[in-house]
Amino acid sequence: MTAKEKKNRQFLSDLFCGEFRGHAVICVPPLVSATQMGDYAISKEPIKKWVSWALRNYELMLEWHQVLDDDSVPYVPLTVSKGLFAAAFGCPLQQFEGSLVTVRPIVYSPQEADKLPIPSLDAPPISRFFEMAEIVRQQVGPKVPIGVSEIQSPFDIAALIWNKEHLYEALVENPDSVLRLVEKCHILLKNFLNEFKSRFGEVNFCHYPYAWAPPDAGCWLSENKVGCISAHIFESFCLPFLRDLSETFGGLFVCCHAYADHQYGNFLKIPNLRGFNRDLRATDVQLLIDTFAGRAVLIIAGATEGQIYNLLKMAKPNSRFLFNLSASNLEEAKVLLERIRNSANARDR
Predict the structure, then answer these.
(1) Which residues have C-beta within 8 Å of that of residue 313, sequence separation ≥ 6?
(2) pTM of the model
(3) How many domains does the chain have?
């Protein structure tokens, strides 16, 4: 590990869990996406076809980390489709050329939900993810972080398995069946994360956006279906499982792109909420800043330069930000990074 990477790791660890020394800025290179390559987790072709893809994306991260004065920590991203866990339950997955993987539900009634067993970690496509991670670990050695797949919350996984129009009816008419399915998803997710961490050691639990946090700071997940439910339903079907994941893994980072400002009070009930990623198009930005100042790092991706400056102007004294920037090349990234650094009051070195 270089001195720069060690410094960045400490800086990000402090940002999420310790003393505030400034906002973080991470520049992300134009990586080759799984959409372009096809999703290795659902393909029937040998895993080795995708190893060069994973290593090339790591090399791009490493190159930009070495050249830029940002806060990045290079790792090997192994992102796959959001259907990883739903497929383990038996949901068919399909990928059309140039598009993301689609997930077809298999549950339309409480009876069908109750019949589903908790899948083994040997179930495809989970087994293919671990096979890929094993090959990558052999290639990069024990000290390079390996990134996790896309992670949904237990409720979001259940919402992929159970046809949504029937699921939302069942939340009222058959809540116990829904709760049992969410519990099964929760158990599978915990088993997966524990296995991933124990088997691969130096891991990065961050699945979106591209960033890094110490594994002991907690796991990351998406909670995107809560915009369609009430705060009361959230308390019963989401919050207990989010609390347990946070307590199990040392904290929680949440990505929520739904229109879900009405759930902010519930998100604040999660112990050790480390980071919160929101789509700025789906929230009252001032409410977001006011609610989470001093409570969690706001992780911002996909924002324009002007939006970043406005966020900094709106920030509270105890606000913390991680800005995830995209650029088409290194020269563009250098110029953009310098401007953002100057506005964000570069960290204390």
Answers:
(1) none
(2) 0.95
(3) 1
